[in-house]
Amino acid sequence: MRSISILGATGSIGASTLDLIRRNPQEWRVTALTANCQAQELAALAREFGAEIAVVADTSCLDDLREALAGSGIEAAAGTRALCEAAARGADLTVAAIVGCAGLAPTMAAIEQGGTVALANKEALVSAGDILLAAVERNGATLLPTDSEHNAIFQCLQGNSISDVSWITLTASGGPFRDWTGGQLRQATPAQAVKHPNWAMGAKISVDSATMMNKGLEFIEAHHLFPVGLDRLRIVVHPQSVIHSMVEYRDGSTLAQLGPSDMRVPIASCLAWPRRIDTPCKPLDLPGLGQLSFFPLDEERFPATRLCREAAEAGGAAPAVLNAANEVAVAAFLAGQIGFTDIAAKVDRMLARAIPAPPESLECVLAIDAEARERTMELLEHA
User: Can you tell me the distance from the alpha carbon of 278 to that of 281, in angstroms, rounded to the nearest whole number?
Assistant: First the structure.
């Protein structure tokens, strides 16, 4: 049996991971499970899977967690330090799925153990890519991309040399507003934005998909994970979400990874790597699909991908500022404080301001993130 820790066990990635473990119980021993403040749910999962420790990030939830775990022999803890200590327990595989910059320190703690980390936290690479990858190399850790797009690229690269790559193509569904006009986009509501046509996701990432910011963030991630150069990365709109990414080689061959719109497919790839395991996912019905279509980006209606590309070109602290500003703007949109098209506009204004010096440590990244969030909130208040 291999040991596994899941940072963010009650989220969508955590739930999909645990579903696969539930189907292959002989393969895994659960070390640590963490959540933000879902004490009852976390305790139930910890009991079911026999975890060694359960951790809530919110210290106010610790008493509820302890009560829910009473008599189980499972350790309960809370707070950022406890999250990092749980991540540092040295599991064979750590699934890093804590949303936002709250996941940076625990992810780094797992990497510093030199094990294998299945990365599902976008902020780790977007805001702290250089620092994170330096830690991976320094500690001899293995980083497995869990996002469907990056996992697809990873699969298409296996057995090949990255020096032979001509293009890496990320595919984007286009979200729920792909065919909307600029006037319609200005009137889009949060309820409409969270209804993704292909994927079942949380509110924030669904809005990011609707603005295309999610694809822009994935562009930055791909830049760090697959160093072919920004000029060899591109995005195409593929509404069916069947091809998750493609790699074109210098001999003219293009390899594509296809699969259902179910995160259990890329997660299973990480759990079994370098092998394969069964999943309950329904196989593709290619005749039933009928056709696969592709369209170019429209960065006039959806400027988020342009902003991400410009932030990646600027480097340094720019991606961290972009990510923080976007999180604040998305939260304001979901709360009804700003319009849909205001999200990218606010991010653009933040990137136009003076950018801090490049971060030299994780602490610097967190400080840049906090400052950018504060400045974005001030921008929203005085809009």
Answer: 9
